[in-house]
Amino acid sequence: MRKAPHKISGARWMMLAYLIAIVLLGWLLMLPVSLRPGVRLSFIDALFTAASAISVTGLTTVGAADTFNGFGTALLMIGFQLGGIGIMSREACTGCSSDSRSAYPRESSSCSIRTATTWPGWFIL
Question: 64 or 104, which is more confident?
Answer without folding.
Answer: 64
